[in-house]
Amino acid sequence: MPVPVETPPRAPAETRVTFPVEGMTCAACQANVQRALQRAPGVTDASVNLMLKTATVRYDPAVIGVPALLDAVRNVGYEAFPPDPRRSVREEQEARDRDAVREYADLRRKALVSIGLGAVAMALSMPLMGGEHAAHGVTPDPFMRWVMERLTPALSMVAPWLYAVPPAALTWTLLVATLVVMLWAGRHFYVRAWLGARHAAADMNTLVAVGTGAAFLYSLVATVAPDFFRARGVAPDVYYEAVIIIIALVLGGRTLEARAKRRTADALRALVRLQPELAHVVDGDVIRDTPVERLVPGTRFLVRPGERVPVDGRVIDGQSAVDESMLTGESFPVPKRTGDSVIGGTVNTTGALTCEATTLGDDSVLARIVRLMRDAQASRAPIQALADRISAIFVPVVIVLAGLTLIAWLAFAGTDSLVQAVAAAVAVLIIACPCAMGLAVPTAIMVATGRGASMGLLIKGGEALQRAGDVTMVVFDKTGTLTEGTPRVTDVHLAAGSSRDEAGVLALAASLEARSEHPLAGAIVAAARDRGAVLRAVAHFESATGQGVRGTVDGHRVIVGSLSYLRDAGVEVDGFEAERARLAAAARTLVAVAADGAAVALLGIADPVKPDAAAAIAELKRLGLRPVLLTGDHELTARAVAAQVGIDEVIAGVLPDGKLEAIRRFQDAGEVVAMVGDGINDAPALAQADIGIALGSGTDVAIEAADLTLMRGSLRGVAAAMALSRRTMRTMRQNLFWAFVYNVVGIPVAAGVLYPAFGILLSPVLASAAMAFSSVSVVANSLRLRTARL
Q1: Taking residues 375-384, what's their average pLDDT?
Q2: How far, in Å, CA of 446 to CA of 783, rounded?
Q3: Percent composition of the chain: helix, strand, coil (DSSP 3-state, to 5)
Q4: For the chain, how big is the Rg over CA atoms in Å?
Q5: What is the pLDDT at residue 711?
């Protein structure tokens, strides 16, 4: 009896999930969450986006589930929520917008109250500069001392009674005001820092909490036990006004940052809001308004002039022109008539259209575009890796540097400089800003993908966006890419001695080609119908991608395809040589037809070159890129088309695997290759290229294989994509440079390295202002991409 062989279980498919994460405020937060997810068993990759406050995880569902992933985030002190699959794209974006508005309003309110209390605290602190504090010539904050010295004369004139209040009463009043700010406006800094400490994680909240907390505790001891300092020859100065203003400035910076960050998602927000909430459903003679969620495929609806198309559909009655600019970037309305498709969210401009719903919900064109954009904005560019590595160790290093600053001041300046030592340590903690590093790349990606969408460019992610800027060579397919993709049969050359007429030959060829998806097949079918030919039943149909088709038509074995395809099938085609040369020189694509083993006709098919193809190639050359034409068509035809558009380098007569191999050869030679195509036969080459660029008018397979999709058929988008990538990479590098330089320069200055030579100390208040400015400046620099000239 044979022993049964146990079949090993199939490995489960990798699963991808994206869920919201709350509590992240800086790059260190992002690094903490990302590290926790990557260490979880079964996780193959995790990407955390600080801008969108989301985590995207690829994992093995046989090892770990979503609840465990959420727990991994919660275990490092942040909050995570499961995704809600019932939410539509619109509902999810609206919820995100509400959260952003709520966050901005809360930050703004707390910042304004803190600034107001900070002004009061400054006024109450001025009388304290007299007496023993002035005798020591020391104040906790050199900037605050400078400000108060200049405001004191005015305050003494306006409120002379303030200087009669006992210093102890002023100090205790400042203590109460500081507690109000710390426990209300700044409460989340301390709560988040405590949660992080419990889970051995540190972030920007830790720095703010430790810095202001140290200043507060120092001031509290000076208030409660001033003799402790007096006994050691140190004035019992207090930091209260500095603590309040530091918190106020950090909150003010985060308020401006939150406001600016909302603008980075404007393009996505505009796309989501394109779809109307109601559709005019046609039910016999009755028209009623119905929520689009209730529509099903086949529902008939009316679109009046000036209204948006509610869902994807097909025109069944009427003529009009539809403005598709918000989705494709196409500046002119597109004519629509019976049988044409319409896209949900586009605008009907002139006549009324009666349409039939086709794809709905998440399968609609608009939903797919929004999904692609959101995925792109949530992705990470490779350039982010350096910032991530630094962010992971940034906060612990800063805390150590602050401790060393305190020790160095006490060691070299003595206990008399205790106030300066504490101020310098606090300044180091406050000025260090991991926020700018965390925002440097994702803000640029969000703005760039939004800008691309407004130009009709769908970019799949940060990695594609970065690679596009490194491209050195752009390889083009011919049919449907450089040409219109709507070819027509212009020549029918019958073989010598053939007993068949044009209509008969076209009937045989069209019967087979009616089953093919190739653009040339449509031209043959159209030509047969124009001549009144009747299509016949086909048996044993076979298709060879990029070569041709074969099958049995009315008992005849028919082959339609390239000359080489017929030769490989044993058909003699030498009799077409003279006609082949003439047609190829006229930029005709050649298709041969054979019946029962004998060649019967050679068809010449013309496919007009796109009007903007030559201008697009010229723009690529101006960018220093090398254009190449790579096609399965005959070389003479290919070179004729290349000459029209300005391409000097041509590789012709290659099958899909030959295109793939050509791309590999270019890459092996050191080229960074972008491939532009639109058909199924282009999919392998699009996937192999460093950047695959598909035309939105192409097949779903080509679009899926590509890294970038041109929503309109214009090739000008290729150069625009390269220019956008280069500009975005420049912006990313600027952001990272200034984020790094800010910390590399700011931390030593805050520590006091300039004090021995120049007597310069950085105030903790100025440090907090600088920290806030650094984050806002990074976001503002990224927003410049919205209006950059490309």
Answers
A1: 70
A2: 9
A3: 55, 15, 30
A4: 35
A5: 75
The yes-or-no answer on residue 106 being catalytic is: no
- In the numeric block, which tokens belong to residue 575? 């009799």
In the Cβ-directed half-sphere of 162, how many Cα atoms lie within 13 Å?
Answer: 22
Contact between 250 and 184 under an 8 Å Cβ cutoff? The reply is: no
Any residues with CB less than 8 A from the CB of 613 and at least 6 apart, and which? 482, 483, 644, 645, 715
221 CB-near residues (< 8 Å, 6+ apart): 228, 229
- Nearest residue to 479 (alpha-carbon basis) of 648, 316, 605: 605
Pairing of strands 598-606, 589-595: antiparallel
Contact assessment for residue 124 and residue 169, using Cβ atoms and an 8 Å cutoff: no
Give the residue among 587, 654, 659, 649 at the shortest CA–CA distance from 621. 649
Report the relative pairing of strands 473-476 and 626-630 from DSSP bridges: parallel
| 548-553 vs 300-303, strand pairing mode | unpaired
Q: What tokens were used for 247? A: 């918190």
The residue whose two tokens read 């990695």 is: 463
What confidence score (pLDDT) does residue 4 get?
Answer: 44
CA 167 vs. chain centroid, Å, equals 56
The contacts found for 55-60 with CB under 8 angstroms, 24 or more apart, are: 55/18, 55/19, 55/21, 55/80, 56/16, 56/17, 56/18, 56/378, 56/379, 57/16, 57/17, 57/18, 57/19, 58/14, 58/15, 58/16, 59/14, 59/15, 59/17, 60/12, 60/14, 60/15
CB distance 407 to 389 below 8 Å: no
Count CB-CB contacts under 10 A for residue 535: 17
DSSP state of 308: B
| pTM confidence score | 0.69
Cα end-to-end distance, the chain, whole Å: 75
Contact between 126 and 155 (Cβ < 8 Å): yes
Burial 708-719, CB ≥16 within 10 A → b, else e: bbbbbbbbbbbb
- The Cα angle at residue 169 between residues 167 and 171, in degrees rounded to 5: 70
Which of 750, 141, 140 is CA-nearest to residue 398? 750
The rounded distance, in Å, linking the Cα atoms of 242 and 224 is: 18
User: Which stretches does DSSP call E strand in 598-735?
Assistant: 598-606, 626-630, 649-651, 673-677, 691-695, 708-710
The amino acid present at 76, given as its one-letter code, is V
Residue closest to 637 by CA, chosen among 564, 593, 565, 581: 581
Catalytic residue among 312, 477, 678, 682: 477
Residues with Cβ within 8 Å of 7's Cβ and at least 6 positions away in sequence, in order, are none
The Cα–Cα gap between 717 and 719 comes to 6
Q: Which two tokens stand for residue 464?
A: 């594609």
The DSSP code for 616 is H
Q: What does 538-597 look like in DSSP terms, one character per residue? A: EEEEEEETTTEEEEEETTEEEEEE-HHHHHHTT---GGGHHHHHHHHHTTPEEEEEEETT
What is the separation of C-alpha 146 from the centre of its chain, rounded to a whole number of angstroms? 46
Taking only the tens place, the pLDDT of each residue in 468-519 is: 888 999 999 887 788 877 788 888 888 887 778 888 889 889 888 888 777 7
3-state per-residue secondary structure call for 71-125: HHHHCCCCEECCCCCCCCHHHHHHHHHHHHHHHHHHHHHHHHHHHHHHHHHHHHH
Q: Is 655 helix (H, G, I), strand (E, B) or coil?
A: coil
375: left (phi over 0), alpha (psi -120 to 50) or beta: alpha
Residues 729-778 pLDDT 10s = 999 899 888 888 888 888 898 888 888 888 777 777 777 777 777 878 88
Asked whether residue 328 carries a pLDDT value surpassing 70, the answer given is no
